[in-house]
Amino acid sequence: MTSPARPPRAARPQSPSRPKGQGQWALGYSEPLNPNERMKKDQDGLAVRERILNEYPHTGFDGIDPQDLRGRFRWWGLYTQRRPGISGGRTAVLEPEELDDRYFMQRIRLDGGRMTSEQLRIIADISTRYGRDVADVTDRQNIQLHWIRIEDVPAIWGALEAAGMTTEESCGDTPRVILGCPLAGVDADEVIDATGVIDQVVERFVGDTTLSNLPRKFKSAMSGCPDQCTLHEINDIAFVGVVHPELGPGYDLWVGGGLSTNPKLGVRLGTFVTPERVPEVWHGVIQLFRDYGYRRMRTRARLKFLVADMGVEWVRSTLEKEYLDAALPDGPAPLPPRNEGRDHIGVHQQRDGFFAVGFAPRAGRLTGTTLTAVANLADRFGQGRIRATTTQKLVILDVPGENLDALEAELAALDLVVRPSVFRRGTMACTGIEFCKLAIVETKGNARDLIVELERRLPDFDEPIGININGCPNACARFQVADIGLKGSLVPDDNGEMVEGFQVHLGGHLGTRSRLGRKSRGLKVTADGLVDYVVGLLETYQEHRADGDTFADW
Ligand code: SF4
Fold first, then answer.
1. What pTM did the predictor assign?
2. pLDDT, the chain, mean
3. DSSP state of 319
4. 419: Cβ contacts below 8 Å, ≥ 6 apart
């Protein structure tokens, strides 16, 4: 294998305050300091495409190079699934190959969450034909399939690419899918439509091999949504719609957000970015991350650590001096979100008079068969435009008023609810132990059971409530920013045995009063005791809340 071409860099003076010894390329580290960096230097992750298409379907699973299987495949959205039947307690003690099933998860990137009905039908058909009819809408607006065999990947990619979709850089140490508002371009109150800048960045930079060996993943959001549904606070980079008093609509730039095991909320650089400069500025920040990001330890390789160590002023001045053609003007902060829920569920009138209809599956789990039906409904009742949201939900756009009731009824027949309970609306779950090799706990099934029981036992509870269920500390379903955040862990049961359960975090919130949830040392619940715990917690809140209280304040 050949070494990738590293982008040229000018020699830079070393700041005395700059953390040393973290493997930053900009400080002259050229040799990999861990096996992941070695794998990336040996060959760029994107180069594995050729072998996935032309070699491995013939060798079969057993012929796949382990460095490709557990490394480079991710650059094309392929992860090995967890072998069924392995308990959460064994997750940390088994070798990766002992956890590997012979099937893959396939993530399909949907920048801005946008799909046509034709594209959704193709995803749905792949799910039904090759993936045992399972499909998950993720909280980053992707669709993730399961049970994929290596032999079927060429046909799957062929079908996706023929319809204008890709799995490129949907995982790996790369610029991942760019979040966008599902109502971009149709919301009457939006500050600015970010569709064009998302498309420009994707077209110019996804697949660019100067950006495909980052220290770790790089998550982006671009939106003028008045609800701020793309959650700019927890992305590596976010462009948030604002109106500059002299320069008009554009974006406020945020950097350094991210959750996982060391959560940090993003910070404003205090700059205004005109739409024309978004690609340049996005490119500048990702290059800064590539060059200055920490590469010694993967647990510290996200942009958030660099931003926290070096501070906003260093990030802004380095960005402007080393990566941009000209300094950025100062700009205003975003207004508070219009709706703290930020999810686009329900019926909302578009600015052209049609309606956007957002609906809720249970914790993002669907089938290919159901997705085919959704695509057909989007054609029958709308104009074939479908969006995924950042809360594992879907939206059909462009529905005439006279079609609303019929569409809502047909969705309900598919168990897709336009006016869901607060529990179905507010509950998310990550992949969990069903498929994820890192998981300690089952999640999607626990979420479904929890929703059913909460609806049955607390039918009058009507306050918005976020319940985010995660199978391990990696926070893919954002447990730190939920009202009730559940982090998969082994916890003691009544007999002192360690069993699957959750560490509880309470009071997380994004919006006007962004804060991370509080972890209480004693607040652990077994998976079997989850329903009773949440019901008891909410009943206690109902009993004691005063007028004007919200659960988030309690
Ligand atoms: Fe897997 Fe953990 Fe992420 Fe859930 S939070 S999908 S268990 S890595």
1. 0.94
2. 94
3. I
4. 346, 408
pLDDT score of 87: 87
The two tokens of residue 279 are: 């690609």
What is the pLDDT confidence band of residue 91, given thresholds at 50, 70 and 90? Answer: confident
* ipTM tops 0.95: yes
Q: Which two tokens stand for residue 464?
A: 């918005």
Closest CA to 82 of 61, 63, 104: 104
Q: Measure the CA dihedral 400/403/405/407, to 10°.
A: -110
Query: Which pair of structure tokens corresponds to residue 537?
Result: 């917690």
Decide if 358 contacts 394 (C-beta within 8 A): yes
| Distance from the Cα of residue 401 to its chain's centroid | 32
Element (H or E) spanning 271, and its range?
strand 267-273
Is the minimum distance from the CB of 525 to ligand 1 under 6 angstroms? no
- AA identity, residue 263: P
Residue whose tokens read 């991210």: 258
**Nearest CA, atom 3, ligand 1:** 476
Ligand 1 site, residue 476, Cβ cutoff 6 A:
yes
For ligand 1, say whether the CB of 436 is within 6 Å of any of its atoms: yes
- To the nearest whole percent, how much of the chain has pLDDT over 90? 86
User: Is the CB of residue 439 below 6 angstroms from any atom belonging to ligand 1?
Assistant: yes
Average pLDDT in the 45-72 region? Answer: 97
Mutate to test the pocket of ligand 1, among 430, 442, 486 (most ligand atoms within 8 A of CB): 430
